[in-house]
Amino acid sequence: MRNVTAAQQSIHVGGEWRAALSGATREIIDPVDATAFAVVAEGGVQDTDEAVAAARAAFDDGAWPRTPVAERAALLRRVAALLERDRERIGALESQDAGKTLEEGRVDVDCVRDAFLYFADLVANEDGARVVDAGSDEIRSVVVHEPVGVCALITPWNYPVLQASWKIAPALAAGNTCVIKPSEITPLTTVVLVELLLEAGLPLGAANVVTGPGGTVGARLAEHPDVDLISFTGGLVSGTKVARAAADSVKKVALELGGKNPNVVFADACSTPEAFDTAVDQALNAAFIHSGQVCSAGSRLIVEEPLRDRFVAELARRAQLIRLGRGTDEGVECGPLVSAAQLARTEEYVASALAEGAVLRAGGEKPAGPGYFFRPTVLDRCHRGMRVVREEVFGPVLTVETFRTEEEAVALANDTEYGLAGAVWTSDGDRARRVAAALRHGTVWINDFHPYLPQAEWGGFGKSGIGRELGPGGLGEYREAKHIYQNLAPRPVRWFAGAAEKDQA
């Protein structure tokens, strides 16, 4: 395997690892100490065009789209085995590149493995064409699914290899070819994943990668006429640009654009000391895993009024105890933010919240020392008019709102432009089901937060995006449905009178 941190040849086109055609490079920064630890190629428009051309040739004339389903599934399982083999190496690289803890990096690799195994099993166990009853023995009617074609896969910086797998695994399982553009901030583990695809035997050209900025590489992929589908995970502003650029060529678009996710806690969920401890613990996990840099982070705590003071006091106390540091160090629970820009963004949101009347209960500052660390922050007495409540911070910032009735809780939880995920905590089973049914979010947890299943679709309502990842629906994003109607006993229709009169004459 190549030493990916030393390789400036991070662009892969049609079977060749190479540098950017312009010779440009980018330093990859360790967010723990703000020093460079790797250098990658900084691709541009020409690199992107050549990658698309390679993917186009591989789809139109290559082996992968015509590879039997069982063989495609077998390759995905080989990739899963290689991920298991390289778990420690990839997990440590993900920890350094994205700033997360080593255990989080390991879990991400496990989830990538599970995604490849799930989509391998899904396509291998399908029944094939769906027979449509046309109401006649003389008609054979079936619906088949075919690959879309060339897929452009643009992934975010917070879960680089995990989010890449959610796109790459179903795209390849369906028989597509692809061009992958990882975030320019955290590209390293995606490059490693492409190496594993090649080691597993994926035909050359079926998976290409271009490292480079979204403003050039991503923008070119979105507008490129030879790209049939674009799948983008990232921010709302960039996602809308992708959708506009894709519209001219009417390509398929899938967007996952984040969320402003409510965590609703009813007082009856904390009726015992154990239940109270669990709800507080889960609220911490919801908000501060990976320093809050999670699209589904439970950044809006909506707690019933009688419980608020006790709950927030304990939440703030525990937040102050969270241990920050390098993710590979013993005892570290939370790493830094990914970049100086993300740190500045978080600081600005906290400052605006305090100016608008929020009460700081914990954190709210950068600790002394190098790197992009920010203390886990709890902001009490928040309301819907505050920017920090309406907009996605993507940092370790938790806002607290209160409610008095179930109807008010639902109204607050749904009062957002986003709709990715949410949770309700209650010991009342009927209430849990009512609230879950009323929440306009793509994933709703009851007495839990954050778990997902590769078998279940992931995506959101509203400005959280378009389409779904994972589950059968995630595979469906990378397919086109084709109806094949065969007349086994063709005969004249006699629709037009002139034709009938001629026959009779």
UniProtKB/TrEMBL annotation:
SUPFAM superfamilies found in the cross-reference section: ALDH-like
Pathway: Amine and polyamine biosynthesis; betaine biosynthesis via choline pathway; betaine from betaine aldehyde: step 1/1
Domain of life: Bacteria
Active site per database record: E256
A Pfam family recorded for this sequence: Aldedh
Annotated InterPro entries: Ald_DH/histidinol_DH, Ald_DH_C, Ald_DH_CS_CYS, Ald_DH_CS_GLU, Ald_DH_N, Aldehyde_DH_dom
Molecular function in Gene Ontology: oxidoreductase activity, acting on the aldehyde or oxo group of donors, NAD or NADP as acceptor
Keywords on record: NAD, Oxidoreductase
PANTHER family from the UniProt entry: BETAINE ALDEHYDE DEHYDROGENASE, BETAINE ALDEHYDE DEHYDROGENASE-RELATED
Annotated family: Belongs to the aldehyde dehydrogenase family.
Protein name per Swiss-Prot or TrEMBL: Aldehyde dehydrogenase family protein
